[in-house]
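EI: anyone free to look at a 543-residue chain?
SC: sure, send it
EI:
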Amino acid sequence: IKYCPGLKSIRYDLLCPEGLVRALLIFTSKIEPPIYKARPVSSNKLHTLTVKLPPKGTRHYRPYVVGGILRNINFTEFSCKTFIDLQDKLHMNICRKRTLAAIGTHDLDACEGPFTYELVPKKDIAFVPLNQTKVVTGEEFLDFYADDRNLGKHLHVIEKYDAFPIIYDKNRNVCSLPPVINSEKTKISTSTRNVFIDITATDLTKAHIVLDTLTAMFSQYCDVPYEFEPVKIVYETDAHPGETVPTMESRRIHVSQDQVNTLLGIDLSIDEIVRLAKKMSLGAEVGKSIDSKGTSGVYIDIPSTRHDVLHPVDVIEDIGIAYGYNRIPKVFPKMGTVAQPRVVNKISDLVRRELALCGYYEVLAFSLCSEDENSTWLRRKADNPKPVRLLNPKTFEFQVMRTTLISGLLKTVAHSKSQKLPIKIFEVGDVVFQDKSVPERQCRTRRRVGALWAAKTSGFENIHGVLDRIMLMFEIKRTNKGNSEGFQFIASDDPVMFPGRCADVFYKGARIGLVGVVHPEVLAKFDIIYPCSMLELDLDPFE
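SC: here you go
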């Protein structure tokens, strides 16, 4: 199956085919929203997952854990694959590449409860990791996965510690070493009938969201659909008093009829609001608010799959989606204004059109990047120019505001190796620098254009032609050095470019960019195997 709808990144329930199909069936009124229920198990027979005290003198750097069980599940090749795919998507999304939370799924018939979650010294760890055949010790673990393209990027979470988090079963068999890998012993397959889910985390709220999502999406394959078995979480530490999860309980909020109609600009009856809310998988019933005003409206029951709904405005947005934004009548604003584009935006659009006509594809890179991508990998000094740094970045990939478009273009090529050569791309976007002379913001923004040619040969003449075409569009002629009317090339030695194959571009006596063949060391840092030529120009001087 292939599906590529435009989804909000916080709709975790739509990240797998099961959730997407279910939402569409509810939207078209073909099925009712499911009711999730706990499997009847006496409290003394619940599986327990105990968080043990860490070794003396250490602290648990992933202190939280939650868990759940799916009994009598019926996996097929397709559903088993989507089960793994959803975990990968959640890891990349809400789990922030496993730094905030990490998922482990196990064949419950291959292990035995009760389970424990412990911080174990590396010298005391030994197990067979998933998809491996030999035992790996804790002291070998980091080196064993250092070169792994998928798992190696998660080692930074644990590599600076002398003890690793481990989930053991009753017989001291390793189930997983979060947040990196599970054990081969508890590997999930199409023959698995009972699944034990664990989520370890530094953020307990994120762990609950992930557990609710996995449980809700795949409990439909159980013999009794939408039935789950909770797990009792016990803490020997003081991190949490303990709980039994998942609960899959809904939350209730009140939305008034006036709020809905005012924000959406339409006139809906109470019954229409109820019907539209139900189309969006929300429970709804007519009722007055319990405050002193007694406002007429609708009580909305938010299911455990909709953690994106935080406020009545979120509900109203869903009602608007169900009604159809295209059906909302267009009206003129009561205040008359006349807007016009900024000159630099008009120039940007002209440049985009010209480069597209030259056969180049536009790309959009993130404005945030890592320190390495912004400077070190480009063989430039870190603070020349000085970037705007994030005070508390959540990931290594988003540490600073970019000061150049070059790294974004190179990353795009690195991820486009399967594309036919030549690769011709460009970007028109903003870069940001610190500037203490600017009041309040203490930074300034510059609009730039960058273009790149990648092929079996450097293709410098092609990038040179692109630059000439841009200048021709602005009706700016090339002149000799010293003439301030046109533009000139002056040889330079920018560390990004190959020596002797680089030039600065000057316009009206001021440097506005550079053009050249990218240095092989830079290409190696971005894992690019083709020679590349590129240019980068400021567009602000053309205003």
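EI: The two ends are 49 Å apart (CA to CA).
SC: 👍
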